[in-house]
Amino acid sequence: MYKINCLNPIADVGLKNFSDKYQITADVQEADGILVRSASMHEMEIPAGLLAVARAGAGVNNIPLDKCAEKGVVVFNTPGANANGVKELVLAGMLLAARDVIGGIDWVKASADNADIAKAAEKEKKNFAGTEIMGKKLGVIGLGAIGVKVANAAVALGMDVYGYDPYLSVNAAWNLSRSVKHVLNVDDIYADCDYITIHVPLLDSTKGMINAVSIAKMKEGVVLLNFARDLLANEKDVLEGLQSGKIARYVSDFPNPTTAGQKGCIVIPHLGASTEESEDNCAAMAVEEIMDYLENGNIRNSVNYPACDMGVCAKAGRVAIFHKNIPNLITQFTAAFGVKGINISDMTNKSRGEVAYTMIDVESAPTAEIIEALEKIEGVFRVRVVK
What is the torsion angle, in degrees rounded to the nearest 10, for the CA atoms of residue 30, residue 35, residue 40 and residue 41? Predict the structure, then answer.
């Protein structure tokens, strides 16, 4: 029986996919797996028996990835599951920035007692007039699951779309519209685009990437959209850009004291992935990932270990080894099985940066003795008997 703890409420459409091999527990210390959305795990003591964490969403800045990796705890996320919800809100953000719909609605509310409101509206509406987005240039920085959907939708709306991503995946390239112009220098986005939307993860290299230096390279009256992470932008620099007129609008999905209520800022209360469909999709994907890992040892969409898939084990046993990505370990693993007279029928090894993951299928059940021998090899973090 596998025990699962939910640090946040997880949609039932996902939880109901657990088979009778699983039990939801309120005690995190006895959990084999954790499902989480926004709860912070940084101050939490990682349970000794924990095998996996699945984040029902894309961002994982609330999870201590390195600490988990060193303990052999696989961390999953659900890329693309909420992409459509975010895409639709980005499009809404562009439209709200292009035409002062919010200002117009506020005027109507304030004029609710005016018996001649319809007549007054004909005079006032010029104050809320804007521009159309068709024919405008949109720059998409980051062509992952969300960026690709935004770019393709913008093409369908008649925009001239430019995309920048130095790490563009093959899958993303296949899904990207031919009409999107792939640029090799982000400065081209800054210099040429009327609208710029950011869809990159928050890393040391991307934190504050929208700042006074990058803003200075942008067109006069640019519209910036940030539905990825607020820390990708130095928002004090953004406010200065708004005051100078360099930036026409800043649309953000991350309310904070810096931008809330500021002129030129359209701040949305973090609604990007907050749709019923997105939450259901994320929950279902997170449950699927954690079940495949716990039952088969397969890793898909992990953010701290490499992808690795050997299907369902048809042999007597399967052992998973978490270890440093250093030479000579595979030789030691196979030798350990050989010394004990256990024949290896299949094996795969994958690495990711400083860590690696090895799965070994064997023709006789792995004994406690062989597991202990593997655990003693220098560089091994954890050994798990999958079957």
Answer: 40
Query: pTM for the full model?
Result: 0.82
As a whole number of angstroms, the distance between CA 71 and CA 48 comes to: 8
- Output b/e per residue, 279-302; b: 16+ Cβ within 10 A: bbbbbbbbbbbbbbbbbbbbbebb
Q: Are 91 and 305 in contact (CB under 8 A)?
A: no
Cross-strand partners of 387: none
Place of tokens 């999958």: 386
Structure tokens at 286: 């997170």
The answer to whether 183 touches 163, Cβ cutoff 8 Å, is: yes
**Amino acid making up residue 340:** K
pLDDT reading at 58 higher than 90: no
Where residue 201 falls among pLDDT bands split at 50, 70, 90? confident
pLDDT at position 203 is 87
Determine what percent of the chain is predicted with pLDDT higher than 90.
95
- Give the residue among 369, 301, 309, 313 at the shortest CA–CA distance from 339: 369
Rg (CA), the chain: 25
Distance CA 325, CA 356 (A): 5
Describe the strand order of the beta sheet including 344-352 as a list of residue ranges: 344-352, 355-362, 317-324, 380-385
Q: Let me know: does 10 contact 38? Beta carbons within 8 Å.
A: no
